[in-house]
Design brief:
This protein is 44% helix and 9% strand. The protein contains 8 helices and 4 strands, in the order αααααβαββαβα. A two-stranded parallel ribbon has the order 1-2. A two-stranded parallel sheet has the order 3-4. It is globular and about 50 Å long.
């Protein structure tokens, strides 16, 4: 991770770092089955982020599959493990921009997903990570909650007097 951050900052996938094409990278992951995705630990800030966003509106997980079958299964199992069996507030698609509209907010760690979502009329916020233009942040959950709060509850303007 340190070398990725130092030498490959802004690279969304660590394929250059490990010298492996994207397709092979995800084939290797898929060979581990759905458990690779299901057993990924939540970031320590995740509970606070989800709680804060849930207080501001309805949260739906929008996640892109890798194109390999175990990814979908494992990501869905992760959500069900965390939120309970039968969890349905999720959409799996590599076309997140197609869900954009003026009241939709996309929080994503991909600069290109944010750009496309904004172009289609949504409001995209880049979640800070070393592989995007926002870069890492000390307290990403609070930063995002603050940004979403400004969007959904803009300050009222004072009447001119």
């Amino acid at each position: 991770m340190q070398r990725w951050a130092a030498d490959f900052a802004g690279d969304f996938y660590p394929t250059a770092l490990i010298g492996m094409p994207r397709e092979q990278f995800f084939q290797e992951i898929d060979a581990h089955g759905a458990s690779f995705w299901r057993e990924l630990p939540a970031y320590p800030w995740f509970p606070r982020l989800h709680q804060g966003l849930s207080e501001l509106g309805h949260v739906v997980f929008l996640t892109a599959p890798t194109g390999f079958p175990h990814c979908l299964t494992g990501k869905y199992q992760w959500l069900c493990d965390y939120f309970g069996e039968g969890f349905t507030d999720c959409i799996f698609t590599g076309h997140k921009d197609r869900l954009a509209h003026p009241r939709a907010i996309l929080i994503d760690d991909s600069d290109s997903n944010i750009a496309l979502f904004n172009q289609r009329g949504g409001q995209g916020l880049t979640f800070p990570q070393m592989w995007n233009l926002a870069g890492p942040a000390d307290n990403p959950a609070e930063l995002i909650i603050e940004q979403v709060t400004r969007i959904v509850s803009p300050p009222s303007s004072e009447p001119l007097g």
